[in-house]
Amino acid sequence: MDFQFNNEQPIWLQIAAAIEQAIYTEEFEAGQKLPSVREIALLSRTNPNTVSKALIELEHKGLIETRRTAGKFVSSDLKKQRENRTMKAKQNAYSYLEAQKALGLDDKEAINLIESIIHDTNTND
């Protein structure tokens, strides 16, 4: 997990996003125990309460689960979570293409626009 904070959103949301990214890229696998709150706080150089808030957010999203006296684990139902994420991304892509067609853009123009946005986003990071 890599923590690179910016001033655009609260630190706890950035920690949650970093852990979520690690889960979706399979740095953490389904059923795997997460580092403790204290370990994550040390890695991220933040307060344990900030980390706890991030973990609560991930629990609400169904990405992690708490096992009494054992700690926090990546959800066992992660495959379904990944499928839902892919399905939502596809729905967003379809909506985007429909909106671009309504504006008179063809598929190639819509794809070029997305590639341009991705390029701009990656060069600003």
UniProtKB/TrEMBL annotation:
Listed InterPro entries: Tscrpt_reg_HTH_GntR, WH-like_DNA-bd_sf, WH_DNA-bd_sf
Gene3D superfamilies the UniProt entry points to: Winged helix-like DNA-binding domain superfamily/Winged helix DNA-binding domain
Domain of life: Bacteria
Keywords: DNA-binding, Transcription, Transcription regulation
Pfam families on file: GntR (PF00392)
A GO term for molecular function: DNA binding
Species assigned in the record: Ileibacterium valens
UniProt cross-references to PROSITE patterns, sorted A to Z: HTH_GNTR
Name by which UniProt lists this protein: HTH gntR-type domain-containing protein
Domain HTH gntR-type, chain residue ranges per copy: 9-77
